[in-house]
Design goal:
By secondary structure, the chain is an all-alpha fold. Helix content is about 85%, strand content about 0%.
């Protein structure tokens, strides 16, 4: 194992607090936990892509980041009626 894989595994461990906040917080806290989880996941994908030396994983991380950003904008647009 190299340092990229260790850093990627550490980033994946950081998803647990994001998941807890996304399940247990208020509406705004849940949205923030979801967004932070998306950022941590995309960073973990980039670190694992470098560790495994696979260029397709870089593309997957970029697409995931773009889709999570647009999804968050859609959720915020939907939630602005009630918050």
């Amino acid at each position: 194992m190299n340092e990229w894989l260790v850093a990627g595994a550490a980033m994946l461990v950081l998803l647990a607090p994001c998941g807890y906040i996304a399940m247990r917080g208020s509406t705004v806290d849940r949205l923030l936990g979801l967004e932070l989880g998306a950022v941590v996941t995309s960073m973990a994908m980039l670190l694992l892509a470098e560790g495994f030396d696979r260029s397709i994983y870089f593309d997957l991380a970029v697409v995931y980041t773009a889709l999570s950003f647009t999804g968050t904008l859609a959720i915020v647009r939907f939630l602005e009626r009630w918050v």
